[in-house]
Specification:
alpha+beta; 3-stranded antiparallel sheet; 12 helices; globular
Length: about 325
């Protein structure tokens, strides 16, 4: 049985911040990543939470990420913003972009943010949910190093490439939060199973010859299984177009891995679209969202994307989060 220790969200944020700065990250860059890590743990997504802090620190130390980078914002067109992350963490680059994206979307009705020379942005839905809390419908796309083979092929060409849609509801909390990758499961889940020496279910990953495997190590050497077969490949290509081609970032097939120390900065990208409901739907927006949400919740045991995260978050704010003690020890070793 895995041994755990319960931490408050404030303790998780503080621990993350101290580890990142100890590894050579500026506080300005470490803070948004630490805040996101605590929020991710609160939402019950442990695979993207504290477990990633040692990886982030390793990547600062080996040069995959510039912990001291200063992202640069440019307003490229009336409703289009770009941010060069300068091979630093994605989170401070997104923070910088959102500072202008939110008011611009309210002013223009719709606005876009393209980020290049970036890195793993963690849980994409964390970022789009922030747009929903600002009263906007948020769409997000991020590409990743290649791990999905095309239909009929066996060599990875595109990454797990998640997309996310966040729709504001009452109080501007996300009423609907779609956050899904193009693969059957996020690659970080396979990596987590590999670290823990656990088998993976059939259908998560394929071996180098394209055959199903339950061995996470074999799967990591092969490819991730696309969600829905060719439809998952289509989703991955869509996200690759949005997050890499439209941002001028590095294609997944040319990006260095998000794990390990091989290769330099991955230089991947993110793309966000923020839409003001007032500009497109007016007073019809809120009742239509409520009608849609109620139609789902009226059914016994039916749930919407994001419901599980909301329940986890409410519980974590009161009870804290159980964290793997082995992960905590790795982080404490970094802090020294």
């Amino acid at each position: 049985m895995t041994e755990t220790k319960t931490l408050s969200l404030a303790e998780i944020e503080d621990l993350s911040l101290r580890a990142l700065t100890a590894a050579g990250t500026s506080e300005a860059n470490a803070r948004p990543l630490a805040v996101a890590t605590a929020a991710t743990e609160a939402d019950g997504i442990a695979s993207h939470g504290l477990a990633y802090i040692p990886i982030y620190c390793e990547h600062v130390q080996c040069g995959k990420v510039d912990g001291l980078a200063e992202p640069k914002l440019v307003r490229a067109a009336p409703s289009a913003l770009t941010v060069d992350a300068k091979t630093g963490f994605a989170h401070p680059a997104i923070d910088l972009g959102f500072e202008s994206l939110v008011p611009l979307a309210r002013e223009q009705g719709i606005a876009a943010l393209a980020i290049r020379n970036s890195y793993n942005c963690g849980v994409l839905g964390y970022h789009t949910a922030r747009l929903a809390r600002a009263g906007l419908v948020g769409l997000g796309f991020t590409n990743a190093p290649a791990s999905i083979a095309p239909s009929g092929g066996s060599r990875p060409v595109v990454g797990t490439n998640p997309f996310s849609v966040a729709v504001p509801g009452p109080g501007n909390e996300p009423a609907i939060l779609i956050d899904q990758s193009a693969s059957t499961i996020a690659k970080s889940e396979v990596m987590k199973h590999a670290r823990e020496g656990k088998a993976i279910p059939v259908g998560w990953a394929l071996d180098p010859d394209g055959n199903p495997t339950t061995d996470p190590e074999v799967g990591l050497k092969g490819s991730m299984a696309p969600s829905g077969g060719y439809k998952g490949v289509g989703t991955a290509l869509l996200v690759e177009t949005m997050a890499a081609v439209l941002t001028g970032a590095t294609l997944g097939i040319d990006a260095s891995p998000f794990s390990g120390t091989v290769g330099g900065p991955p230089r991947t990208g993110q793309f966000f679209i923020a839409i003001s409901p007032a500009a497109t739907a007016g007073d019809n927006f809120a009742p239509l969202v409520s009608r849609l949400v109620d139609a789902v919740h009226a059914q016994d045991d039916a749930r919407l994307p994001g419901d599980g995260r909301s329940r986890h978050r409410a519980r974590a704010q009161v009870q804290g989060v159980p964290v793997n003690t082995a992960t905590l020890q790795r982080i404490e070793n970094i802090i020294g």
